[in-house]
Amino acid sequence: MFRVIALTFLTAISTYAQDPVTTKIDDFIKNEMMRQKIPGVSLAVVKDGKPLIVKGYGFANLEHQVPVKPETIFQSGSVGKQFTATAVMMLVDDGKINLDEKIGKYLGEVPESWANITVRHLLSHTGGMTDYPRDFDFRRDLTEDQMLAIAKGIPVAFKPGEKWQYSNLGYVTLGILIGKVSGKFYGDFLQERIFKPLGMTTARILNEADVIPNRASGYRLVAGEVKNQEWVSPTINTTADGSLYLTALDMMKWDEALASGKLLKKASLDEMWSPVKLNDGKTHPYGFGWAVRSVNEKRVIEHGGAWQGFKAHIARFPDNKLTVILFANLIQTNQSQLANGVARIVDPSLKPKPITDPDPVFTSSAKELFVSVIDGKADMGRFTPELQKAFSGGQERLAAFVKSMGQMREFNLIHRSEEADGVGYRYQIEYTGMNLILTMFVVKDGKIRSYAIQPE
Fold first, then answer.
1. Are 374 and 451 within 8 A, CB to CB?
2. pLDDT average, residue stretch 371-377
């Protein structure tokens, strides 16, 4: 069945007549959809402030053979975090939130372990909070108070500002904080302050009970066969870690607002797009709801998302005046590879220049260690005592998610920096279904002092 579907590749519209670049992008997307068994993709490319491509490929719904079009609605996954972060920064601009204030001021009573966590820490994933525990029941309806109580009961992995560790629960907490400060459910705040003013007419919080025109279906691969997404409780689909319906058209309006500074002061945008500074003065390539990096010394501001059979990605290249927005309705989709692959076709200067690996033996060892970390079999003696404590919890869901993404295809060094107290490494890890970035720092005695994994 899927072979017939994959070969069809119905397309919706393109803003311009077919040209060599568009043809290359079409071929690239179609080939990747075939290889990755993706039912449908929605793509928007904005160059120099104008739409270059706005197009749908494949099917939004396999059972009814509904083609993807620009109006097709997908789920955001963690792309929604940038909207949560923007909502917080709007309240900062309003004088209602201080980034460096302790979150207890806004949330009320908090555990002692949260006493020194600030709003800035939550936005940048440096507060020590982890992720949903292994036994978390995603099919149980929870109130915000119950959700907050669960988060409070999970031990922190490290002291605020010491390290970076991706935390969905941190963003869930931010959504609750927005509600307490604004007096409105965070989804209503987004509607009033972001979606309606920007004309993002189909952007909204997830609600599977409502009848929503143009909503895509989400899928997953099970033993190579396409299956419908699994379900979660209605309230779990309303949390601020990424529970939005979005279209490519919505996201183009969002991109224009970011480029023109419609919603936030320039200083606030600069904060969101700057690498977070840790307690030791070092930085990590993540801002507030955005991953930040560079390619050939050109800035990249991006974020991916994954949830309920959907993948999403927005990659902004401000120095190149280029934005790529991509949605897919298969959870195993490598959305970063697709979005960045499109960017490199539009602007070949964005193809990373190869880096010579000065120590392939060490890279091989780093790869083996990474695999053992994901398998839960790592030799803890490789890490400093402080980092060993950080591995005591919060890794299970990441490991399970990575394992669902298929086979590892590449493990490459993309950056190496020698410092007075050791060497920093940055690796790109390509799986069939996603790309990861691994950053690690090895001190002079050979112990690993920091170790962070994040989607590209």
1. no
2. 87
The number of residues making up the chain comes to 456
Helix and strand numbers, DSSP H then E, in the chain? 15, 18
Q: Per-residue pLDDT tens for 50-68?
A: 999 999 999 999 999 999 9
DSSP codes joined into one string, 349-378: GGSPPP---S-HHHHHHHHHHHHHHHTT--
Task: Determine the average pLDDT of the residues in 305-319.
Answer: 96
Cα separation, 181 vs 90, in Å, equals 12
Closest CA to 452 of 434, 425, 432: 425
Residue 6 pLDDT class (50, 70, 90 cuts) = very low
Predicted confidence (pLDDT) at residue 17 exceeds the cutoff of 70: no
Identify the pLDDT of residue 7: 33
Count the neighbouring beta carbons within 10 Å of the beta carbon of residue 326.
Answer: 28
- The answer to whether 164 touches 286, Cβ cutoff 8 Å, is yes
What is the residue type of 4? V
Residue 304 clears pLDDT 50, i.e. is over it: yes
Of 435, 443, 439, nearest to 427 by C-alpha is: 439
Closest CA to 340 of 51, 58, 124, 43: 43
Which H or E run contains 171? helix 168-182
Please write the tens of the pLDDT for every residue from 128-168: 998 898 889 999 999 999 999 999 999 999 999 999 999 99
How far apart CA 111 and CA 98 sit, in angstroms, is 20
Alpha-carbon distance 56 to 201, whole Å? 19
For residues 275 and 283, the answer to whether their CB atoms sit within 8 Å is yes
* DSSP classification of residue 446: S
Please provide residue 235's backbone torsions phi and psi, each rounded to the nearest 5 degrees: -75, -30
Bridge partners of 324?
45, 315
Closest CA to 127 of 86, 171, 89: 171
* CA 165/CA 131 separation, integer angstroms: 9
